[in-house]
Design goal:
Blueprint lengths: L1 E5 L4 H11 L3 E6 L10 E5 H9 L3 H7 L5 E5 L5 E6 L1 H7 L3 E5 H10 L6 E4 L3 E6 L4 E5 L5 E3 L1 E4 L6 H7 L6 E14 L8 E7 L2 E7 L4 E9 L11 H11 L7 H8 L6 E8 L5 E2 L2 E3 L2 H4 L8 H18 L4 H30 L4 H12 L4 H12 L11
Parallel strand pairs: 1-2, 1-11, 2-7, 4-13, 11-18
Antiparallel strand pairs: 3-6, 4-5, 8-9, 9-10, 12-15, 12-16, 13-14, 14-15, 17-18
Helix pairs in contact: 1-10, 2-10, 4-13, 10-11
Bound molecules: flavin-adenine dinucleotide.
Flavin-adenine dinucleotide (FAD) binds next to helix 1, strand 2, strand 3, strand 12 and helix 9.
């Protein structure tokens, strides 16, 4: 089949990889003029880690990854108030856990395509007409094309979803936070392999020291701190962060001053996408476009890779019957994704606690995570993927 995939992030190239393995012809369309670089750091483990191993990507993923040693919560004077050694993650995942930049993971998957998928950068699917036996696609720039299937792998704010299923508001559940991230070169202090966070009620800032003198900063804050519309450009994003974090203390004045010279501030609502179907005719969704779990799950990339693997696997098993394959893909994964979404939403209040008591409780609990029974109770359920994926033959 000729299959067009909109979005070359995590899910798109992973799906392209498995579709190529089964002999399909793939066109990837990515709105960014080139593969995105930089950006935030993700934790990577679970079913997606297993699939990455099947794809032969683990050596590179581990090379690019950071084996974080500690998560540390500090007060405004940088004194340790809570946190835990990440040995707890290693123990629960049998050492199959790493952290790396999302863009490094995306590039690693894309490279595995080895030039076998045509890719159009700087463009997007802009129109979908399902003709029953094929689908006619318009693009923002490229000439129209005909395909057998079109897949939306274009993330949380998916355009394919909007074109085929309706407006985002119908599927989005906002979890009550905004998130922002950017990186700076040469920031001091550095704490190698330690994820350092400081929070006051409703607002939290974290920093992580990366290679090449870079430091990643992650801001989380409750949506009540943002009056009015979300910022629409870089200048507005910086101005919102400077306002919201002005009185947070700790290293904030230094970080906010350094932010002025940084490029590429990521800023978005923390949301999930919940749908009751992931396909319609010859169109299907994968990754965040279908079932964004949000950063609170800490597993969106792994899940996107797993979804891509199952979608391609079911298409291979159903021998070209895309209706049956889409149904099996959804039946196999939707309940699992819904459980992941529920547990991430349940975790929302402890992510950037809204009160001093909440922060003190979070700090206390995280100190106790070194006790295996406590760790099992608080994070074991979320870390384990209660699903076994088939061993598809491509
Ligand atoms: C701050 C933050 C922290 C996170 N932490 C973690 C973590 O620790 N662990 C984890 O596993 N996950 C984490 N996630 C979630 C993870 O990043 C996503 O779940 C994952 O990237 C989803 O992959 P995807 O391919 O579906 O979407 P994306 O990675 O968002 O890729 C979508 C791609 O589509 C492109 N695109 C968008 N619109 C169009 C269009 N109209 N036309 C063409 N292309 C388009 C985009 O440019 C992008 O390349 C985090 C997310 C955030 C925001």
């Amino acid at each position: 089949m000729r299959i067009v995939i909109n979005g070359a992030g995590i899910a798109g190239p992973a799906l392209a990889y498995w579709l190529l393995e089964s002999g399909h012809e793939v066109l990837l369309v990515e709105e960014s003029p080139r593969l995105r670089s930089g950006g935030y750091v993700i934790d990577f483990w679970g079913v997606g880690y297993d699939i990455a191993e099947k794809m032969g990507l683990l050596p590179r993923v581990i090379e690019l990854g950071y084996q974080v040693q500690e998560v540390r919560f500090v007060d405004r004077d940088s004194r340790r108030r809570g946190g835990f050694s990440t040995g707890v993650f290693d123990r629960m995942t049998n050492g199959r856990f790493t952290s790396l930049q999302r863009s490094d993971l995306a590039a690693t998957i894309y490279r595995a395509l080895d030039g076998r998928a045509e890719t159009i950068f700087g463009d997007s699917v802009a129109g979908i007409r399902d003709a029953g036996d094929s689908v006619q696609l318009d693009f923002d720039h490229a000439a129209p094309r005909q395909a057998d299937l079109v897949i939306g792998a274009d993330g949380l704010h998916s355009r394919v979803r909007q074109l085929a299923f309706g407006p985002e508001a119908r599927f989005e559940t906002a979890l009550g936070y905004y998130v922002a991230a950017f990186e700076i070169e040469g920031y001091r202090p550095r704490d190698e392999l330690v994820y350092v966070s400081h929070g006051i009620p409703g607002r939290q800032i974290s920093r992580f020291s990366m290679r090449d003198e870079r430091t990643l900063f992650l801001f989380i804050f409750r949506d009540r701190y943002l009056a009015g519309e979300a910022p629409s450009n870089e200048r507005e994003r910086k101005s919102v962060l400077a306002d919201v974090f002005a009185d947070v203390g700790w290293e904030c004045p230094r970080i906010l001053a350094a932010m002025e010279n940084s490029g590429g501030v990521y800023f978005d609502r923390v949301s999930q996408i919940r749908m009751d179907r992931w396909s319609l005719g010859r169109t299907a969704l994968v990754g965040d476009a279908a079932a964004c779990v949000s950063l609170l799950a800490g597993e969106g990339t792994g899940l996107a890779i797993a979804e891509a693997y199952v979608l391609a696997g079911e298409l291979a098993r159903c021998g070209g019957d895309h209706v049956a394959a889409f149904a099996r893909y959804q039946d196999r994964l939707m309940p699992f994704l819904q459980r992941k979404q529920d547990s991430a939403a349940g975790f929302a209040s402890s992510f950037a606690p809204g009160s001093s008591i909440g922060i003190a409780f979070r700090n206390q609990v995280t100190r106790l995570l070194r006790i295996p029974l406590v760790a099992d109770f608080f994070i074991g359920r979320d870390l384990r993927d209660d699903i076994v994926l088939p061993d598809f033959q491509f």
